[in-house]
UniProtKB/TrEMBL annotation:
GO molecular function, one term: kinesin binding
The organism of origin for this protein: uncultured Dysgonomonas sp
PANTHER family with a match to the protein in the record: INTRAFLAGELLAR TRANSPORT PROTEIN 88 HOMOLOG
Name of the protein in question: Uncharacterized protein
Signal peptide: 1-20
Length: 386
C-alpha cells in the first residue's frame, strides 16, 4: 500500500514559529499546583477555556498549566503563542517534563528535529512512565522516515501503565508505510479494540481498515468498517458510496439500494455539489476474463430526453482503459411506460451501438449481465447511429 493510502494523525506542526514575547519570572512570582481538571479539559478539547482560565494569569499558573496553554494554542493553530507559553513554562520550571515535551514538539515542527528529540528525551528521563512522550518522540522519527526508531518508541508507548491510544494506530501506520499491508491491517484491528477516548482517531482507524479490506476485495469486512463510519457520520457520503460497491460485490442488492437511496436524497438536497460524487458515484467493480470493470451510476433523472445513466470503464490487465460502455436511458413517450436502455461502446476513436434494447426497469444485476455479454463478445456491435 502506498504511503498516501493511510490517513495519518501525527502531532507534528510544520508552520514557522515566532520567537518573540519571552517573559521572565521573578523568584517572588506566585506558583500554585495545577488543578486536577486541566488535563480533562484538554482531553475534552476545551482549548479556548484553558487559555482564558490559565493563559491570562501566567504568574499564577504552574509550569504544567502553562504547558497545557501552549498545547491549546497548538491545537488552535496559533503557533507563535504556543511557543511563547512553552518558553514561559520552562522559565518557570526548567525540569517540567510536560513543558519540555511541548517545547520539543514545537522545535521539531519548526524544523529543528535534533533539538526536538533532545527536549522530549529530557521529558522522558524526568517522567519515564508517560506514554504520550514516547508517542511524540516516535512522531518525530516517523516524520523523518526513521521507522525503526519510530516503531520502538510507539511500542514503548503502548506498554506504559496508561498506554497511548494514538501509538496503537501509529504502529499500523509504520507498517503501512513499509508496504507491510497484512501487518498494518492486523495492527489497525488491534488499535480499533484499544481506542476508547479519541473518537476522531477511532474513525481514522476505521477508514484505514475499510480501505485495506476493500483493496484486498474482502468486501464483507470492508462493508462492516464503512457501515460503522456511516453510523458515526450519516453525511459521510464517501463511505455510503463504498457501501454500495461492497454490497453489490457481495450480491446484497437490496442493501446496496438502501445506501443508494440515501445518496440520491443527498443529491436532491444539494449536499453533494462540492464533493467528488457531485454527478455520479461508483456502484460496482467486477471482472470479465482478464478485464477489470468499474461501474458508475449518474444521479441525473430526465423525464423527457435521453441521458447517459450508467458508465462502465473496462480496463485491460495493465490497468489501461480499453473501452467504455454506457447505458443510455430514454424515457417512454407514453405515461406509465418504463423507457429503455440502449448500450453504447466507445473503443478508441470508434463508437458502436447494438441491435438490442433493454427495459428501463431492469435491476442493476441484470444490467451488469448485459455489460458482461458485450465485453465477452456475445452481442455483436454495429456502427453507432444516434
Amino acid at each position: 500500500m502506498k504511503k498516501a493510502a493511510c490517513i495519518l494523525l501525527i502531532s507534528l506542526f510544520i508552520l514557522p514559529l515566532s520567537h518573540s514575547g519571552n517573559i521572565l519570572f521573578s523568584h517572588e512570582s506566585q506558583v500554585v499546583k495545577p488543578k486536577d481538571d486541566i488535563k480533562k479539559m484538554f482531553e475534552k478539547g476545551l482549548y479556548t477555556e484553558i487559555i482564558e482560565e490559565y493563559g491570562n494569569t501566567p504568574r499564577a499558573s504552574s509550569a504544567e498549566e502553562l504547558s497545557y496553554v501552549a498545547e491549546s494554542y497548538i491545537r488552535l493553530n496559533d503557533f507563535p503563542n504556543a511557543s511563547r507559553y512553552a518558553d514561559m513554562a520552562i522559565q518557570k520550571e526548567a525540569k517540567s517534563a510536560r513543558a519540555l515535551y511541548v517545547k520539543g514538539s514545537i522545535s521539531s515542527a519548526n524544523g529543528n528535529h535534533t533539538q526536538g528529540i533532545a527536549d522530549i528525551q529530557k521529558a522522558i528521563n524526568l517522567a519515564p512512565k508517560q506514554a504520550e512522550y514516547y508517542t511524540g518522540l516516535g512522531d518525530i522519527y516517523f516524520a523523518q522516515d526513521d521507522y525503526t526508531k519510530a516503531l520502538a518508541n510507539y511500542r514503548k508507548a503502548v506498554n506504559m501503565p496508561n498506554p497511548s491510544e494514538k501509538a496503537f494506530y501509529m504502529i499500523g501506520a509504520v507498517y503501512a508505510n513499509q508496504d507491510n499491508v497484512k501487518q498494518a491491517l492486523d495492527t489497525f484491528y488491534v488499535a480499533k479494540s484499544k481506542i476508547e477516548k479519541d473518537k476522531e482517531l477511532y474513525v481514522t482507524v476505521l477508514n484505514n481498515i475499510g480501505k485495506i479490506e476493500f483493496d484486498n476485495k474482502n468486501y464483507k469486512d470492508a462493508s462492516e468498517a464503512y457501515r460503522e463510519l456511516t453510523e458515526y457520520f450519516p453525511d459521510d457520503y464517501y463511505s455510503l458510496e463504498k457501501l454500495v460497491e461492497c454490497y453489490n460485490a457481495l450480491g446484497y442488492y437490496s442493501r446496496a439500494d438502501v445506501s443508494k437511496a440515501r445518496l440520491y436524497t443527498a443529491y436532491q438536497q444539494g449536499e453533494l455539489w462540492n464533493t467528488s460524487i457531485a454527478d455520479m458515484f461508483c456502484v460496482d467493480h467486477f471482472t470479465v476474463g482478464d478485464k477489470d470493470v468499474s461501474a458508475y451510476e449518474r444521479f441525473e433523472v430526465s423525464p423527457c430526453r435521453t441521458i447517459t445513466k450508467y458508465i462502465f470503464y473496462v480496463a485491460d490487465k495493465d490497468g489501461r482503459i480499453d473501452s467504455t460502455i454506457t447505458l443510455e436511458f430514454t424515457p417512454a413517450e407514453e405515461e406509465g411506460k418504463s423507457g429503455r436502455f440502449d448500450p453504447v461502446m466507445q473503443k478508441g476513436a470508434d463508437k458502436y451501438g447494438f441491435n438490442v434494447v433493454y427495459d428501463g426497469n431492469l435491476a442493476y444485476t441484470t444490467l451488469q449481465s448485459v455489460v458482461k455479454d458485450i465485453i465477452d463478445g456475445k452481442v455483436d456491435p454495429k456502427p453507432y447511429v444516434k
